[in-house]
Design goal:
Chain lengths: 105, 458
């Protein structure tokens, strides 16, 4: 790992697009599952949610996020919080994702 | 650490429940096709008893228990009490079922060595059910305030207890009629036994689970409001009143009790109509404009429930409910519960397969979507054939025409086997890589940034 490289939010967000919600088949960023992201001295802190509480894929999604972020150069540590407030709704999707699922604005 | 957490959210034995359930379902259909039984056959014949128990214990019970072991943690956000208990339950129920089948064959065929296996088999099934009720009942009871799906499943478990109790009473009276003379009339309560099992247990539970799964898959509002609560309260009260009053009339056939029984039956009809209206509302309020095949095909199951309700109402109006009962049971078992089961398996099986096969690879490399594990073009004809066959067979059952009924069962059986093949392909990911994925925000087949850093999880 190259400690001189400082990851930025765009790089982390872009990497998170490699992680999909398996049921919806779409990346978790454009689904609106990432609520907050902060990076300080190579430590990435993010809060995310699931499409429904008790989702059987929850632990896989968390592990997938952790694995993907830790691959980024300059990431020294990672903290993932799963939050349920505010609850996720399809309106949190990006316009591209909403168009994919035929969801009106 | 992550892997331990992951395991806790997967019901390890649920796929085995589904596989055995499907084997039993096809086995029961083979008996019908072979001319061993059909809905209007006497309940006392060995073939009918074997087919009925293959359907309600072998197919529906294993299907619903397998689904609950996976989805009660979703409903309650709490884990099951024990994964091992699920395996013990599976062995007990399937082993007990085989014992009961041997017992039926032995009792009617005069084979003394086999007839003794009936109480043993019944006891094993009861043990399996008790284990399952504990395993899902504890997380449901601890979930406060419970959700509507959770409360409906809990209510279903109460009716499961009533169903098992009546079944044990039947077994006791049949095995020792002289010892229990005052209980002997309970044998006339077969209809109440069926109402508790197919209605209070299977139907209320299926409704409850559908209130969680349908909104989740279609992106529809989960909160069902007064209408959903009405379905639960009116349905539960209706089944309870109809069953208790029906049992009471066996010993005291008073007019007031019979009126009470009819009031309960009306409440069941009202709750069913409310549920169908609410499901219609759910489909109309969904955010996902193009829904997946399992949700489209499930409309057929809801339609069969509606047809059963209309048929029951029409028959009751002309006092012919008893005469139409075999056809109603067929519509409920094959059309409503069976239809909902085979359509939702088309989603649940690939979802579980994805978790097992690809969950651990998420974030480490490209993975398919759940939808990539199935091929709708291959499954759609089977759903159509199943629905068409059930329709033909149901009409034949109403008309008491056994030949036409068996003709209708031919596509039902072929379709069931065809769908089993599709579930098998999904479970073994046979379709992955054979068809292009639909467009997503990032093409999943070539995640550029991932391919540049193919790190492995230790």
């Amino acid at each position: 790992m190259n400690d001189l490289v400082v990851p930025d939010a765009d790089a982390v967000t872009d990497a998170l697009r490699d992680v999909i919600d398996p049921e919806l088949g779409y990346n978790i960023v454009d689904l609106g599952l990432i609520y907050a992201l902060a990076i300080e001295d190579g430590v990435v802190t993010l809060s995310m949610t699931m499409t429904t509480p008790g989702c059987p894929a929850q632990d896989y999604l968390i592990a997938g996020v952790e694995d993907r972020i830790r691959q980024l150069p300059g990431v020294t540590d990672l903290k993932v919080d799963v939050v349920w407030e505010p609850p996720w709704s399809p309106q949190r999707m990006s316009p591209l994702a909403r168009a994919q699922f035929g969801i009106a604005d | 650490m992550a892997r331990i957490m992951v395991a806790s959210r997967l019901s390890r034995w649920t796929p085995h429940f589904f596989a055995l359930a499907l084997v039993n379902f096809v086995g029961a259909q083979a008996l019908v096709l072979g001319g061993v039984t059909w809905p209007a056959e006497s309940l006392g014949s060995a073939g009918t008893l074997v087919a009925i128990h293959l359907l309600v214990i072998g197919w529906l019970l294993l299907l619903v228990l397998g689904a609950l072991f996976q989805f009660v943690p979703v409903i309650t956000t709490r884990p099951l009490e024990s994964q091992t208990a699920a395996l013990v339950c599976l062995v007990a129920v399937e082993g007990g079922l085989l014992g009961m089948i041997a017992g039926f064959v032995g009792a009617t065929g005069g084979i003394p060595g086999l007839s003794g296996s009936l109480p043993v088999g019944g006891g094993l099934v009861t043990i399996g059910i008790l284990i399952a009720a504990w395993n899902v009942g504890v997380p449901l009871a601890r979930c406060r305030p419970g959700s509507l799906p959770g409360r409906m499943v809990m209510t279903g478990l109460a009716f499961l207890a009533a169903t098992v109790t009546l079944g044990l009473l039947f077994g006791s009276v049949l095995s020792a009629p002289a010892a229990l003379p005052r209980l002997a009339p309970v044998l006339a309560a077969v209809g109440d036994h069926a109402l508790a099992g197919l209605g209070g247990w299977f139907t209320l539970t299926a409704m409850g689970v559908s209130y969680k799964l349908l909104p989740m898959f279609m992106l529809a509002p989960e909160e069902r409001g007064a209408l959903g609560r009405g379905v639960h309260v009116v349905g539960a009260a209706g089944f309870a009143v109809a069953i208790v009053a029906g049992l009471a009339t066996i010993w005291h056939p008073a007019a007031a009790l019979i009126d009470l029984q009819h009031a309960g039956e009306i409440a069941i009809g009202v709750a069913t109509a409310l549920y169908l209206w609410d499901v219609r509302r759910m489909y109309r309020e969904r955010k996902r404009s193009v829904i997946e095949l399992h949700d489209r095909a499930a409309i057929g199951a809801f339609a069969f429930l509606g047809v059963a309700l209309a048929l029951a109402a029409a028959a009751a109006a002309v006092h012919r409910l008893d005469g139409i009962a075999p056809a109603l049971v067929f519509l409920i078992v094959f059309g409503w519960l069976g239809g909902l089961g085979i359509t939702q398996l088309y989603k649940i099986v690939p979802f579980l397969a994805w978790l097992v096969r690809y969950g651990g690879r998420l974030g480490r490399g490209p993975v398919p979507r759940v939808q990539d594990l199935v091929r709708d073009g291959a499954a759609l004809p089977w759903f159509v054939a199943y629905g068409a066959g059930v329709s033909i067979a149901a009409v034949a059952a109403v008309l008491r025409w056994p030949t036409a009924f068996r003709i209708g069962m031919v596509p039902v059986t072929i379709a069931t086997i065809g769908l089993c093949l599709e579930y098998w392909r999904a479970w073994h990911a046979r379709y992955v890589g054979t068809a292009p994925s639909v467009a997503t925000a990032r093409p999943l087949s070539t995640p550029s940034s991932l391919s540049a850093h193919p790190g492995d999880r230790p």
